[in-house]
Write a structure and sequence with these properties.
Layout (H helix, E strand, L loop, with lengths): L13 E4 L2 E4 L23 H5 L10 E2 L9 H10 L18 H18 L5 E6 L2 H13 L5 E6 L2 H10 L4 E7 L22 E5 L1 E2 L4 E2 L12 E5 L16 E5 L10 E6 L16 H6 L9 H16 L3 H20 L5 E2 L11 E6 L5 H10 L2 E2 L10 E4 L6 H18 L1
Helix pairs in contact: 2-7, 3-7, 4-5, 8-10
Bound molecules: 4'-deoxy-4'-aminopyridoxal-5'-phosphate (PMP).
The site of 4'-deoxy-4'-aminopyridoxal-5'-phosphate has 11 residues, from helix 4.
C-alpha cells in the first residue's frame, strides 16, 4: 500500500515500516479506530514500545462479563499489530495452513508456555479443542469409562449439574452431594462424602461461574484407580494448581485465557485409548493427542490468542504472581460488600468465595436496574447476575485491572450513600 493512500477516506489505520504493515495502537492521544478519524503519525517507535505505554486506554470500558470476558489490553494490541502480517510471513494467522511451520510454531509455543505456567508433567497430554466445555461434559465419560461404569459427581452449581446430566447418556453417574437445595452457596466437607469405591472418576466444577463457589482444596476419589476430573473453565490459570492431583482438567478459554472457540484439555496419558466405541472421532482424546490437536483443522486464531495470553501471564511472573493480584482484587470487592451493613450481600460461604466471579444482591432489589444503568454510565458493563439467580455478578478474571475493581468499589459506595 502506498503511504499516500493512508490519507484516503476510510483508509485502514496502517503504517508501512520495513515491508511490514503494522496496525497502530489506539493510545488515548490518538483517535482510535472506532472513532473513524484518520491521522498521520511517524513510526519511529517500535510496536513493542507502543504496546507497553499504557495499562488501559480511555476508550475501553471495564467489562465484568462472565465470558466471553475482558482480555489483557496489551495482548489485544499485540494481536492487532500482528493481525495483518504475522512475523513477516505475509499473511495473518487466520490465513495460515494449520499444518505449515508457522502455525506449528504458534501451537507448540502455546503448549510449552502453558506447560511451564501450570508445571504440567510430561505424562500429561495438552489438547486444544473445539466445542466448548459443554462438549467435554460428554467427552469425559466417553473416554474415561464403559457404558455401565459408575462415576461420582459432586455438584456445587449449575455447571456441575449440567455435566452430570450429560454423563447420564454414557455411563452410570451418581450425584454424591448437591448444594442445589441451599441454592449453591458452599462446598461440603470432604470427610462426610459417600464416595463410590468403584467410581472410575470423581467430577467437580472447580469454580462455579454463576454462583461464585470455588474449591480451595480438592477431594480425593475413594477408588484408588479412579481419578479426579475438574471443569476449570472459569478459574483456569488464575492461580497455581497441582495438575498431578487430577486425571483430567478441562477449560473453555473464553474467561481467563482467550476467545471462545477453544477448549483446553489436560489429561494423564495412561487414561487415553479406552474410548467407548460410539465415541465420535473428534471426541476421542487418544486420536486428538496422537495428532497434537491437529487431527482436523483446529481453531487456529483462538489458539494463537491463548498463546499470547500465556506469554503475558509468564511475563507477569507466572501464576503465583497472578494469584496475588487476583486475591487483592477479590479482597477489596468482598470487603466492600461485607462492610456495606447489608446494603450489598454475597450469599456464598466465605471460605469458598470465588476469586473470579463475585455474585452479590442489593438489599433493595428494586434498585437493581438503576445500579446497572448508573454503572454503565461510568463505563462499567455486564454486571447483571445470571438470569437464573438475579442480582449482580462482577467477573474479575486475570485481565480485569485492579483499577477496574477499585472503580467498581468506589461506585458501589457512592451508590449506597445515595440510596441507603
Ligand atoms: N463450565 C463452566 C464452569 C462455565 O462457566 C461454562 C460457560 N460459562 C461452561 C462450562 C460451558 O462452556 P461453553 O460455553 O464453552 O461450552
Amino acid at each position: 500500500m502506498a503511504a499516500t493512500s493512508l490519507n484516503a477516506p476510510n483508509a485502514p489505520l496502517l503504517q508501512k515500516t520495513h515491508q511490514t504493515h503494522v496496525f497502530l495502537k489506539p493510545i488515548s492521544t490518538i483517535p482510535c479506530q472506532t472513532s473513524a478519524k484518520r491521522f498521520s503519525i511517524s513510526c519511529s517507535a517500535t510496536t513493542q514500545d507502543r504496546l507497553s505505554v499504557q495499562s488501559q486506554s480511555q476508550d475501553r470500558v471495564f467489562n465484568f462479563a462472565a465470558g466471553p470476558a475482558t482480555l489483557p489490553e496489551n495482548v489485544l494490541l499485540k494481536a492487532q499489530s500482528e493481525l495483518y502480517n504475522w512475523h513477516g510471513s505475509g499473511m495473518s494467522v487466520m490465513e495460515m495452513s494449520h499444518r505449515g511451520k508457522d502455525f506449528r510454531s504458534i501451537i507448540e509455543k502455546a503448549e510449552a508456555d502453558l506447560r511451564s505456567l501450570l508445571n504440567i508433567p510430561e505424562n500429561y497430554a495438552v489438547l486444544f479443542l473445539q466445542g466448548g466445555a459443554t462438549t467435554q461434559f460428554a467427552a469425559v465419560p466417553l473416554n474415561l469409562c464403559a457404558p455401565g461404569d459408575s462415576v461420582d459427581y459432586l455438584v456445587t452449581g449449575s455447571w456441575g449439574d449440567k455435566a452430570f446430566k450429560e454423563a447420564k447418556k454414557y455411563c452410570n453417574p451418581k450425584v454424591i452431594w448437591s448444594g442445589k437445595s441451599e441454592n449453591y452457596v458452599r462446598v461440603p466437607s470432604f470427610d462426610g462424602l459417600e464416595l463410590n469405591p468403584n467410581a472410575k472418576y470423581l467430577h467437580i466444577c472447580a469454580n462455579e461461574t454463576i454462583y461464585g463457589v470455588e474449591f480451595k482444596d480438592y477431594p480425593v476419589p475413594r477408588n484408588p484407580n479412579g481419578v479426579l476430573v475438574a471443569d476449570m473453565s472459569s478459574n483456569f490459570c488464575s492461580k497455581p494448581v497441582d495438575v498431578t492431583k487430577f486425571g483430567l482438567v478441562y477449560a473453555g478459554a473464553q474467561k481467563n485465557v482467550g476467545p471462545s472457540g477453544v477448549c483446553i484439555v489436560i489429561v494423564r496419558k495412561d487414561l487415553l485409548g479406552n474410548a467407548q466405541e460410539i465415541t465420535p472421532v473428534m471426541l476421542d482424546y487418544k486420536i486428538l493427542a496422537d495428532n497434537n490437536s491437529l487431527y482436523n483443522t483446529p481453531p487456529c486464531y483462538g489458539i494463537y490468542m491463548c498463546g499470547l495470553v500465556f506469554e503475558d501471564l509468564l511475563k507477569q511472573g507466572g501464576l503465583e504472581e497472578v494469584e496475588k493480584k487476583n486475591q487483592k482484587k477479590a479482597g477489596i470487592l468482598y470487603n466492600a460488600i461485607d462492610e456495606s451493613k447489608g446494603f450489598y450481600r454475597c450469599p456464598v460461604e466465605k471460605s469458598v468465595r470465588s476469586l473470579m466471579n463475585v455474585p452479590f444482591t442489593l438489599e433493595k432489589s428494586e434498585l437493581g436496574a438503576e445500579f446497572l444503568k448508573e454503572a454503565e454510565k461510568e463505563k462499567m458493563v455486564q454486571l447483571k447476575g445470571h438470569r437464573s439467580v438475579g442480582g449482580m455478578r462482577a467477573s474479575i478474571y486475570n485481565a480485569m485491572p485492579l483499577a477496574g475493581v477499585e472503580k467498581l468499589v468506589a461506585f458501589m459506595k457512592d451508590f449506597q450513600a445515595k440510596h441507603a
